[in-house]
């Protein structure tokens, strides 16, 4: 993956969260120490068209609820937001992919996307994703968010 | 005339946002039905009178493109207007869906104003 692809994934994260949830993500300082959230989620989808690849996003579990609350216009401790946390993370990833693919591959290519899947990940998986050179690191109110776009060779 | 609307999207969050937008939009609403994929949407068309369908593209079981194709195979449902609400708004996708008779497209994330305008444009209803 080139820097352009990594930049596109990061820009899509920032744009999507600001427009969908009015949440603003900032790039993490490259010299900042690695983060180790207590409880994390990873969302993943694959796409297939002129190229194939995967888009992944990892974040602390409570941030998913916060995103849901902002999308739905309710408080994070509302039952509605707590129920919608995982679903909202999936939707963020879906919207991000919808921005990235035409930006990188143009308006004239059809892509088939799988439905996003979300799983809980342990600290080892988080750290593996975090140290990958293809991963873009962001933060939202001091909470880390990782994004990785991988293209099949 | 109160409009009966079907919202097909695998994201319950998106369905909820569309419902809230419709309820706040000053549009004369009847019943709002929800489906989590294209097959559930087709089942809903069999069971209820629907005036307008909002459908996502990327969904499990049956995606939005397949839904539109299947809907059009039924003469009683072919004329029901469809608005695609999706992250995929590329020229390639819109050309494909216009060929199947899709009237309008809304790109996610959308604003309430965009959704209201689409309804007015597609159905000609006044607020």
Summarize the structure.
Chain A has 153 residues and is of the alpha+beta class. Chain A is built from four helices and seven strands, in the order H-E-E-E-H-H-E-E-H-E-E.
| SSE run of chain B | EHEHEHEHEH
Number of strands of chain B: 5
**What strand order characterises the main sheet of chain B?**
2-1-3-4-5
Amino-to-carboxy terminus distance of chain A: 10 Å
Q: What value does the Rg of chain A take, in angstroms? A: 15 Å
Question: Which band does the percent of strand residues of chain B land in?
Answer: 15-25%
What's the number of extended β-strand segments of chain A? 7
* C-alpha termini separation of chain B: 11 Å
Order of helices and strands of chain A: HEEEHHEEHEE
Largest interface, by Cβ-Cβ below 8 angstroms: which chains and how many residues each? A-B, 30 and 23 residues
Judged by helices, strands and strand pairing, the structural class of chain A is alpha+beta
Contiguous uncertain segments of 5+ residues of chain A:
none
Q: Enumerate how many helices of chain B there are, as a single number.
A: 5
Strand content bin of chain A: 25-35%
Question: What proportion of the residues of chain B is helical, as a percent range?
Answer: 40-55%
Task: Report the sheet with the most strands of chain B, covering strand number, pairing sense and barrel closure.
Answer: 5 strands, parallel
| Low-pLDDT segments of chain B | none
